[in-house]
Amino acid sequence: MELLTEPFSHAFMVRALVCGLAVGAVCASLGVFVVQRGLSFVGDGLAHAAFGGIALGLLLDVSVAHAMWVALPFTFCTALGIAWVLRSGRVHGDVATGVFFGVTFALGVLLLGFRSPDRAIVSVESILFGSILAIGQEELVVVLATASVVGLALAACWSRLAYATFDAELARASGVPVARLDYLLLGLTAVVVVVSVQTVGVVLVSSFIIIPAATAGLLARTLRGVTLVAIALGTAGAAVGLVASYHLDVASGATIILTLGAIFFVALLTRRAHG
Amino acid sequence: MCKRFGDRVVLEDVSFTIDEGELLCLLGPNGAGKSTLVRVALGLLRADAGEARCPASGVGYVPQTKAFSRTFPAKVEELVTAGLRGRWPWRVRASERAKVEAALAQVGAAHLYGASLATLSGGELQRAFLARALVRAPALLVLDEPETGVDVGGRDELASLLRALATERRIAALIVTHHPELVARVADRVVLLDRVVRAWGTPREVLGSLPGDASSTPPSDPRAGPSTEESA
To answer: Model pTM?
Structure first.
């Protein structure tokens, strides 16, 4: 028991746990719709767009901690751009995302290169891989507020989002505002990605969105079941990964994702074994 | 009704009626404007001129079942409840269960309650979608290529089912199809559409004119229906 409680005798671990639970739950909730719509690549694309936004913030001489306020509108606009290209129906979702992914990430690299050499050195590694253990009180409040707002928005729109995800035309014929929901889903994903980048980093944030939802899809038979299981897995993966990384003295973000990945493969093998 | 996309005229002066309890099949080649006409009838598209007047009880829509992902985690009763609410249900309420069961029974699919959509055959899936369309008791059904993904036996069952709904419950249907056998089996009347109404009449009259050149069929005036349930 002490193995589980001892890490949380440190305040930074308590903050990391609360942050991990909030990010795990909200990413998993969004991930259910992202995965069911075949847009798994979108999380990755938006995370790389967030990198471009953070780089823009750094160029504007904003600190790393506050660069998310520049990354937020930047990534949000990228999400709306992806949604617009998707709705045009001229290219597939993965192509649309891939184009924005490449362009915004390359822009980020370019912008970082424009920074004056006199300015403070920025650890690109910390942007790419995050630092959940370093999260401060102020950042935690932002994460919790974002998770609450996005969670409430998702709860309010769940039924309509679900119908539009099942069959967009059928939903439209029933009066569901499918276009607005498409933009809303990608907009919310952009906001969550930017806020989550602080905890698990650019590279791993899409895993937080995709893996719990994909695992839940293997285990549950209704969308409601998938949503509940995904939230449970997202939060449990965050807690178990955090404790494991503490005791093993390894990177926490990566350990959380590896924990989620391990659960996915167990679910996949269990599903195969049971047909 | 007229509809154009840019310079391309998709529907030109198309007009017809469907009577109560009548099964009307809409035939035509690809690009003839059938889907556009259905989308206008459902309120998904606005016509440039004219309108689709639908019954006050609404329209029950049965889409092509291939449009949705078979991996979507859903049960039959959730699909039917979605038709009732216009939203996907978090859970089926006790007050909704009787209506859902009645709709499923109406299409001979009461045994599918509780089944996952992913496990259904093409014919069963078609019945589930038909129950979804019927659950709000509409006077008019619109079916978009209902034979898609359904085997020969399933098509026969579907034809019998539509005929029974029309005869016993006076439900009219607009059926978009490519299958002359389905037309011959269920249709009271047929509209051959190719941007304009090319032909109109009984299945025998219209199908009999098809083997040669459909476009050479002399146009008839479909507007002389005795009563109007739906006009487009």
So the answer is: 0.85
Domain boundaries A2-273, corresponding CATH code: 1.10.3470.10
Three-state DSSP state, B219: coil
Q: Which residue of B has its CA nearest to A157?
A: B87
Whole-number Å distance between alpha carbons of B52 and B16: 10
Cβ separation of A172 and B82 shorter than 8 Å? no
Helices (H), chain A: 2-5, 11-36, 40-59, 68-88, 93-114, 124-129, 137-166, 168-173, 178-219, 223-248, 252-273
SS3 assignment, position B57: coil
CA-based nearest distance A181→chain B, Å: 13
Q: B74 to chain A, minimum CA–CA distance in Å?
A: 5
Where do the domains of chain B lie, and which CATH numbers do they carry? Answer: 1-58+138-232 (3.40.50.300), 69-137 (no CATH)
Closest CA to B229 of B155, B190, B172: B172
CB atoms within 10 A of CB A157: 20
Reported as a single tens digit per residue, the pLDDT across B24-82 is 999 988 888 888 998 888 888 888 988 888 877 788 999 876 667 778 999 999 999 99
Q: Is A169–B67 a contact, with Cβ atoms under 8 angstroms apart?
A: yes
Those residues with Cβ within 8 angstroms of residue A137's Cβ, 6 or more apart along the chain or in another chain: A15
d(CA A158, CA A165): 10
Where do the domains of chain A lie? 2-273
Interacting residues of A243 by C-beta distance below 8 A, sequence separation 6+? A3, A4, A7
Q: Do A159 and B91 touch (CB under 8 A)?
A: no
**What's the one-letter identity of residue B169?**
R
- ipTM reported for the complex surpasses 0.90: no
Q: Which residues 6+ apart lie within 8 Å of B184 measured at CB? A: B203, B207
